[in-house]
Prior knowledge:
- The chain has 8 helices and no strands.
- The chain has 175 residues and is mainly α.
Amino acid sequence: ALAALFVAARPVERALYPWVLVSQTLPAAALAPLLTIWLGNGLAPRVAMAALFAFFPVLVNTAQGLRQISAEQLDLLRAWGATSAQVFRLLRVPAALPALFAGLRIGSTLAVVGAIVGELAGSSSGLGYVISIATYHLQTDRVFAAVTLAAALSLCLYTLIVAVERRVVFWQPER
Length: 175
């Protein structure tokens, strides 16, 4: 929704995009404990960290996809008297789907990293917690096992998104 707002209203993008960029410069290791303090020691800080990690690639790719439309197709829809809402629904959204899914593929793997960073900052469960405790006790095998599970989870999410993309963006050639 924010990507659509950025494309529809350039002043909004000019006002908010610098803040989006600033959000990406914040060190995650410093932000995770703050989120744990603010949101408690439950699921919320982990979800917030995962969302923060995934947000930027999805936003940037979606906004770029919404902008990359064919001038000829836009002219044709305008000649047929299409409203801005119809142009958005019939042209911009379908054109943006490949870029959106590219952002989701990147964002899903980063979300796993974000959740683990959130768990490292004071959680009592999860892969980040296992990594933290195993590192403290010099249990390298457990650290490797947790990292392997995180990689497997990322790969599963990535594969799921690719499968959904193939169904939704059926007109795109196979990669």
